[in-house]
Write a sequence for this structure.
């Protein structure tokens, strides 16, 4: 069980109004280092990779980086995935992270959060 760091890449334009946050190599029991993106209100998350046997991942949010909640899509469904997916995130908490809750030795996931500033 490890906390994986992320990389951040701004949109390739002069306004820098978008950012891609990427966590890679997430295995069973891993979570992502929390991303604090208070300037970016519109968010979508892409989850891809090998889930392995019974693999599952939650996208979680927190306002204190200590207590975490599973975030939801615009239809009110938890963003808990067992297969590749792309979802809009309804809530806008201070911190966001992926959390792999199940899988096996083959589980290896990549999560890309795309966030856009509202201007």
């Amino acid at each position: 069980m490890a906390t994986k760091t992320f990389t951040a890449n701004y949109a390739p334009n002069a306004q820098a109004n978008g950012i891609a946050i990427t966590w890679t190599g997430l295995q069973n029991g891993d979570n992502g280092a929390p991303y604090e993106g208070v300037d970016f209100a519109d968010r979508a998350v892409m989850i891809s990779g090998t889930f392995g046997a019974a693999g599952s991942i939650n996208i979680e949010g927190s306002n204190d980086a200590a207590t975490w909640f599973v975030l939801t899509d615009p239809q009110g469904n938890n963003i808990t995935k067992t297969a590749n997916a792309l979802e809009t995130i309804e809530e806008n908490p201070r911190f966001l992270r992926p959390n792999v809750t199940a899988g096996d030795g083959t589980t290896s996931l990549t999560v890309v959060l795309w966030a856009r500033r509202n201007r």
Notes: The chain has one domain: 3-116.
